[in-house]
């Protein structure tokens, strides 16, 4: 990876762009290997989701993530939205070595990348967008996504506070048609600069036209909870997270962008995300749970476990919050997750520090939350931390291996990206990963919605079913 002197006029004229890229095409010919140019340029403020709607094509890799500053979560790196469109370089793999292989792909790609333009600005330079499925191996259920997908986008549009930035990643080699490449870049650049409109959302309300079907019966879910409680009593494991899925069919194709826009209004404090495969399927959601973020060597993660609904009145809401904070069952569930995260970080040689337990209150549900921090040495990659933490007891159980075996036996559907790491890593090693919960897989007129509940001693099948149905209903409202 090389960083060129700052060039602020790369996209001022087509001729200047052609001249600049031609120099690096010659370098690729001399070295007999492709060169990737990562060009960063500031633009006037724009909503990256609007650009995403205008430019993203269904049969390509795309990615979107947004986290707004909200309540107690106001932090310098938050209030960020980032869209990634198309792929300049991509890598997929299945198997237990997926996190290590992902790091190798990132390193090898950066080794042939030159970073140009306004690289000093926030979110400048090459970013790698990643999705990892819950399990690392294919199953007979044919998941929609490989166990790991990592890609460097052709175009990246980001907003950090009031600052907006475009990154174009261009692959140059001996066979590159420079005229066509410059034309394509120039036309897309002009299109991005011309975007000023607000998000276009469908005007048709078609909730009454939807059909809904439980993938497994609610009775099956309750039976799985009861069987898990028996295993917990026998000390097979201490906690298990069981998911429930619902298939929804519409006479009209679901609009993933419109759903994201609805989710951003309903859940401003959550991670908004969307990632696609190259077959037109999109996985979207609004997750309250950060897996991990790293910025300038400072790691942030946290335990999120233990839930209660919100009250319809101020007094009812306060009573539910008090009951959650004092619940022996919910505090135990939460403590299992917090202890696991700290133990995993310690095994990486880190020294995690925890803040006191607090409430994270969303529009329809509230959770117990413990923020956890650590300093990360330069030789520990963000994906090392992701590999160590996934899956946490908040989405799998404890002990982890026994819980995952149980999930495989009792869940009749493929989790795919549900409850799995979704995020990005930049060329400095900074990055952000959310946990893909409160999520849906969209495929044309069909959508599969996922939600889960943590089962510990003291759980009751009816209450756990009510919790997942509450989460599913909130997601369903955003799809229409």
Automatic annotation (TrEMBL):
It catalyses: chorismate = isochorismate. It is an enzyme of class 5 (isomerase). Keywords: Isomerase. Its EC number is 5.4.4.2. Residues 219-471 form the Chorismate-utilising enzyme C-terminal domain. It comes from the Bacteria. Pfam families: Chorismate_bind. One of its GO terms (molecular function) is isochorismate synthase activity. PANTHER family: ISOCHORISMATE SYNTHASE ENTC. Belongs to the isochorismate synthase family. This is isochorismate synthase.
